[in-house]
Design goal:
alpha/beta; 5-stranded parallel sheet; Rossmann fold; 49% helix; single chain
Length: 206
């Protein structure tokens, strides 16, 4: 963790590059925990976290990347996306709010967007998919109903989304195959200590 903190200081002092960390995963995969345990020890003045939920009416009146581009990190900064622009080719396709033709156009737009910020703003993008098994997800969602410290995370709709596991996996696979520059880092997430260790290594190499 100390080494990661030192690398952050160098990034900020040089102010020639930035880092965008994209966190994706099914409900219960541990995105919040990773952000807290792996990135939470860095200087908060140099790290910003943006959580993306369902778009607002204003956001829907613009193109789907409008709300994303506003939070691209400035040089010297680290930006973390808890969920991201990829929701617009994942959950939207699972629920058929977005047809396949539109999804193909959105994937190309995402590739262009990521190439833009990598080339013109010298932004290093780290894309993580936290993969948990269906059984582990069920256990974690159930725990949210029993553990007072985790009840704030409980959403009854999460169990309905979990039933669509197979469809989500197909959409994620399509995403990995078509939006792979930079490539995705697939992280086994059933064990939290192992997940945190695997995420720490690429962050230290960025």
């Amino acid at each position: 963790m100390e080494e990661l903190d030192e690398l952050q200081n160098r990034l900020f002092a040089e102010s020639k590059h930035s880092v965008l960390v994209v966190m994706q995963g099914m409900d219960g995969s541990g995105k919040d925990g990773v952000i807290r345990n792996v990135l939470g020890n860095m200087n908060p003045q140099g790290v910003t976290v943006k959580s993306y939920k369902a778009p607002t009416a204003e956001e829907l009146s613009h193109d789907f990347l409008w709300r994303i581009h506003q939070h691209v990190p400035a040089k010297g900064m680290i930006q973390v996306f808890n969920r991201s622009h990829y929701e617009d080719i994942l959950v939207t396709r699972v629920h058929k709010w977005c047809d396949d033709g539109t999804a193909v156009k959105r994937m190309q737009a995402i590739n262009d967007f990521e190439q833009l910020i990598q080339t013109h703003n010298r932004t290093r993008i780290l894309k993580f998919y936290l993969h948990i098994s269906p059984d582990e997800q069920h256990d974690r969602l159930t725990e949210r109903m029993k553990d007072p410290a985790k009840m704030w995370k409980y959403n009854e709709k999460d169990f309905e989304e979990a039933k669509l596991w197979g469809i989500y996996m197909k959409m994620y696979e399509d995403c990995f195959n078509n939006c792979n520059n930079p490539p995705w880092i697939i992280v086994p997430a059933d064990q939290n200590w192992y997940k945190n260790m695997l995420l720490l290594l690429p962050c230290m190499m960025c």
